[in-house]
């Protein structure tokens, strides 16, 4: 599903040049659950943003669903992203001015799904995330765990093939964190590919494969933890 | 409550920390180890004048050290080395 060849990302300012990713080669198959770990500043989120077509690599190639996307125009990347990729962020990134229903509905509006179909799909996913009773509430009226369930609902409402999660439990207590991880595992068991950046070995235990990044390099992978 | 954070005073390179939990009458044992691999070691990396080549040499050596490490132990975390650190610390957990 995803393949990178010598993927490189360099951030430049007038004075400093920082290589966030240095010739990263990796492959992620459909249906996999992959965790990306590593210390702060190792390039985890940069890699996730590039895989998620939110950012461009400085060099190398990125293949997504058999398309070589590194040279895609912004419009083509946006089209590919909105119909195939769902994002879950540590800080939820819900829109405060929209209520729960409207937040979850948003990706379907971008896809020009009809109003009746939007209503059906949003209600279905809110039921699944056990958050229907809060559909008229605004994000600030919800707990962190509830906000993350809404964020996951928004990520999956358009039935993406890939979910990218950046520290999805980072702002949650352990009980809500476990619930979020169970939701991601369930979605993966139903066939959605999940790629998750995490600092938590406990969360990484849910993955099939763990990629350890350090200084923009893949240092090791395929370590499945056992506890 | 699902996690416990336990400070371990004086936990040194290659020390083993053995943690035994008793949950509902059942004992659960974990073994952790911090291993210190060479990092900015003048003997091996000072031959590279170019910072990028030096950085690559450090990474490849770390990669080799991790690949060659005892397979009974699984890598949990690589810690960021401090500036000019001669060694880099890596946390392992014993496989069950």
Name the beta content range of chain A.
25-35%
Work out the largest interface and the residue count of each chain. Answer: A-B, 23 and 23 residues
* Strand tally of chain A: 10
What is the H/E order of chain A? Answer: EEEHEEHEHHHEHEHEE
Shape of chain A: globular
Q: What do these coordinates show?
A:
The complex is a heterodimer of chains A (227) and B (96). Chain A contains 7 helices and 10 strands. With 227 residues, chain A is an alpha/beta fold. In chain A, the strands form 2 sheets. Chain A has a 6-stranded mixed β-sheet, sandwiched between helices. In chain A, strands 2-1-4-5 form a 4-stranded antiparallel β-sheet, with helices on one face. Chain A is globular, with a radius of gyration of 18 Å. Chain A starts with a strand and ends in a 7-residue tail after the last strand. By secondary structure, chain B is an alpha+beta fold. In chain B, strand 1 (16-23) and strand 2 (26-38) form a beta hairpin. The longest helix of chain B has 17 residues, at 51-67. Chain B is elongated and about 60 Å long. The interface between A and B is medium-sized, with 23 and 23 residues.
Observed structural traits:
heterodimer, A: 227 residues, alpha/beta, six-stranded mixed beta sheet, four-stranded antiparallel beta sheet, 7 helices, 34% helix, globular, B: 96 residues, alpha+beta, 2 helices, 4 strands, 22% helix, 36% strand
SSE diagram, text form:
The complex is a heterodimer of chains A (227) and B (96).
Chain A: E1 2-12, E2 17-28, E3 33-37, H1 44-51, E4 59-64, E5 67-68, H2 74-84, E6 85-89, H3 100-110, H4 115-128, H5 144-156, E7 162-166, H6 174-189, E8 193-197, H7 201-204, E9 209-214, E10 217-220
Parallel strand pairs in A: 3-8, 3-9, 6-7, 7-8
Antiparallel strand pairs in A: 1-2, 1-4, 4-5, 9-10
Chain B: E1 16-23, E2 26-38, H1 42-45, H2 51-67, E3 73-78, E4 87-94
Antiparallel strand pairs in B: 1-2, 2-4, 3-4
Précis, in short:
The complex is a heterodimer of chains A (227) and B (96). Chain A is 34% helix and 27% strand.
């Amino acid at each position: 599903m995803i393949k990178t060849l010598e993927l490189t990302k360099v951030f430049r300012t007038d004075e400093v040049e920082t290589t966030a990713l240095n010739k990263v080669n990796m492959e992620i198959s459909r249906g996999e659950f992959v965790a990306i770990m590593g210390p702060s500043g190792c390039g985890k989120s940069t890699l996730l943003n590039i895989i998620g077509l939110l950012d461009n690599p400085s060099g190398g190639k990125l293949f997504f669903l058999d398309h070589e996307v590194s040279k895609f125009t912004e419009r083509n990347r946006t089209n590919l992203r909105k119909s195939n990729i769902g994002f879950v962020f540590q800080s939820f990134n819900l829109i405060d001015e929209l209520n729960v229903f409207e937040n979850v509905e948003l990706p379907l509006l971008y896809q020009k799904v009809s109003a009746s179909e939007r209503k059906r799909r949003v209600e279905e996913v809110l039921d699944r995330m056990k958050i229907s009773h809060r559909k008229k509430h605004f994000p600030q009226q919800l707990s962190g765990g509830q906000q993350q369930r809404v964020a996951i609902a928004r990520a999956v409402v358009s039935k993406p093939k890939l979910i990218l999660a950046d520290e999805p439990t980072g702002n949650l207590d352990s009980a809500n964190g476990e619930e979020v991880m169970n939701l991601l595992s369930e979605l993966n068991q139903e066939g959605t590919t999940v790629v998750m950046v995490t600092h938590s070995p406990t969360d990484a235990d849910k993955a099939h494969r763990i990629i350890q990044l350090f200084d923009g390099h893949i240092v090791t992978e395929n370590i499945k933890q056992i506890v | 409550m699902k996690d416990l954070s336990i400070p371990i005073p004086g936990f040194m390179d290659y020390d083993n920390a053995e943690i035994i939990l008793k949950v509902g009458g059942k004992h659960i044992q974990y073994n952790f180890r911090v291993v210190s691999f060479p990092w900015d070691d003048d003997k091996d990396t000072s031959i590279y004048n170019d910072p990028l080549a030096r950085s690559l040499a450090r990474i490849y050596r770390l990669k080799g050290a991790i690949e060659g490490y005892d397979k009974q132990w699984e890598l949990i975390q690589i810690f960021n080395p401090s500036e000019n650190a001669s060694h880099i610390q890596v946390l392992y957990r014993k496989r069950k």
